[in-house]
TrEMBL record:
Species annotation: Manihot esculenta
Cellular compartments per GO CC: membrane
PANTHER family noted in UniProt: AMINO-ACID PERMEASE BAT1, OS04G0435100 PROTEIN
Transmembrane segments: 21-45, 57-78, 151-177, 183-202, 265-287, 324-353, 374-394, 400-424, 444-467, 473-492
Highest rank taxon of the organism: Eukaryota
Localization: Membrane
Membrane topology classification: Multi-pass membrane protein
This protein's record includes keyword Secreted: no
GO BP, sorted A to Z: gamma-aminobutyric acid transport
Protein name: Amino-acid permease BAT1 homolog
């Protein structure tokens, strides 16, 4: 029997999903969920505007450093609990019988909210990239190019979401194969962009500009406080460096998951940390005119700063935008693969929570496709909710800011619950897996927990001043309402019947 399946049985679950994923395939899906371009590209422009290049460039290094603490803490827990329920399953067992149900409930819903919103962030940013591709393919903003209106933007958003759901309805081998393509797409495409862009650009910024120049734009952002501007400039890095828990969601389908799950988590962080910084440096060195990037009359309508950087580089040297369009398509592919992988993760969490009767109509969402052995109903539930999240695109200008904040707070906030429980639990109650921190676990978990709390807090902050209906970050309101309803449900009803993960194998009492 596979070591991961053996541990799953010890935890009280029978093997229901196909355990066919290799280390490389699991790594591919985890890497695709984090993705090289999808976090940096949509927030690069706003983060650069807050405090200039130095804060943005070094912010990635700082965030990467603290992300390792979170990843190492999660890798140890994943090694001990290789289950599809991952975070909320971990929370239930680590918090103990008294607090386990509440910890599991909070973690499960935070994770579910974060992952479904994560699908929305990929769909929105992918639509934004496609909008720029269409614009540059039909001309430019100055030459009568077609800039997709809001209704078409929403249709693209919905179309991507539906395509990801359709693909996730097939066997996991299909998703794994696509994600193997994804990892090569992003590694090769990333190398091409990182190397080619600075070489093509007619001029390059100096090292002192990229690494030491600090510049605020209070006339555009309304922010005059330097510390506050720096905090906001870090958002692009904090949004980009998570999603590595995707490997944990697939542990019931991965061979040797108690070993390969942690390896996938840490390897994903390492690859993204290096490639992400290189991508930021390539964009920043290639800037031609800082102020022109944000000019609404420029070739890309001031809507997408990376697209303008690519256009300036290729049009400046070759007097056409073909090269920029090709590289934008490479970036768009990253969003496509990322959305596909996040849909896979989200469906697994919804399936696992439904298996434990934690979602209304759980009997519907926990059904597994009889042929493909995937939670197809859970896939379509995630897609439907994601589409609902995107409907305000027609009327509101800050939808991406809100969805990004909801995604990050929910997703990363879900990490905090099991990490905190692991930090405070008695060591004798923990059955270590192959990856074990020993005495180092408490300081590592402590730093990881504080970093998560800080990350969640900054995504609730206003990003522009003075605050108005056009720029209001409504994520605190949206999250406040949703989380209040979830906790009210717990107090009035769920605490009476929700006991956390429900075993489907009867095993003798033992330490798990």
């Amino acid at each position: 029997m596979d070591s991961g399946e053996k541990r799953l049985n010890e935890l009280g679950y029978r093997q229901e999903l196909r355990r066919e994923m290799t280390l490389f395939k699991t790594l591919a899906i985890s890497f695709s969920t984090m993705t090289l371009f999808t976090g940096i590209t949509p927030l690069y422009g706003s983060s650069l505007l807050y405090a200039g290049p130095a804060s943005l460039v070094w912010g990635w290094v700082v965030v990467s450093f603290f992300t390792w603490f979170v990843g190492i803490a999660m890798a140890e827990i994943c090694s001990s609990f290789p289950t599809t329920g991952s975070l909320y399953f971990w929370a239930a067992h680590l918090a103990g019988p008294r607090w386990g149900p509440l910890a599991s409930w909070c973690c499960a819903w935070l994770e579910t909210i974060g992952l479904i919103a994560g699908i929305g962030t990929q769909a929105y940013a992918g639509s934004q990239t496609l909008q720029s591709i269409i614009l540059l393919s039909t001309g430019t903003n100055k030459d009568g190019g077609y800039f997709a209106p809001k209704w078409l933007f929403l249709c693209i958003y919905m179309g991507l979401t539906v395509i990801w759901a359709v693909l996730n309805t097939f066997a996991l081998e299909v998703i794994a194969f696509i994600d193997v393509i994804s990892i090569w797409w992003q590694v090769i495409g990333g190398l091409v962009i990182v190397i080619m862009l600075p070489l093509v650009a007619l001029s390059r910024k100096s090292g002192s500009y990229v690494f030491t120049h600090f510049e605020m734009a209070p006339e555009s952002t309304g922010i005059s406080s330097k510390p506050y501007a720096v905090v906001l400039s870090f958002l692009v890095s904090q949004y980009s460096l998570y999603g590595y828990d995707a490997a944990a969601h697939l542990t019931e389908e991965t061979k040797g998951a108690d070993k390969n799950g942690p390896i996938s988590i840490l390897t994903s962080i390492g690859i993204i940390s290096v490639f992400g910084w290189a991508y930021i440096l390539a964009l920043t060195f290639s800037i031609q005119d800082f102020n022109y990037l944000y000019d609404t009359t420029n070739e890309t309508a001031g809507a997408f700063v990376p697209a303008q950087i690519l256009y300036d580089a290729f049009h400046g040297r070759y007097h056409n935008s073909a090269g920029a369009i090709v590289l934008l398509f490479v970036i768009w592919g990253s969003f496509f693969f990322g959305g596909l992988s996040i849909t896979t993760s989200a469906a697994r969490v919804v399936y696992a929570l439904s298996r434990d009767q934690g979602i209304p109509f759980s009997s519907v969402w926990r059904q597994v496709h009889p042929k493909h052995k995937v939670p197809s109903n859970a896939v379509w539930l995630c897609a439907a909710v994601c589409i609902l999240l995107g409907l305000p695109i027609l009327k509101v200008n800050v939808v991406f800011t809100a969805i990004t904040s909801i995604c990050t707070i929910g997703w990363v906030g879900g990490y905090a619950v099991p990490i905190f429980a692991r930090m405070v639990m008695a060591e004798k109650n923990f059955k270590a897996g192959p990856f074990y921190l020993g005495k180092a676990r408490r300081p590592i978990c402590f730093i990881a927990f504080l970093w998560i709390c800080y990350t969640c807090s900054v995504f609730l902050l206003p990003t522009y001043y003075p605050i108005s209906w056009d720029n209001f970050n409504y994520s605190p309101v949206a999250l406040g309402i949703v989380l209040s309803l979830i906790m009210l449900w717990w107090v009035l009803d769920a605490r009476k019947w929700f006991k956390g993960p429900v075993r489907n194998i009867e095993i003798p009492n033992e330490k798990v």
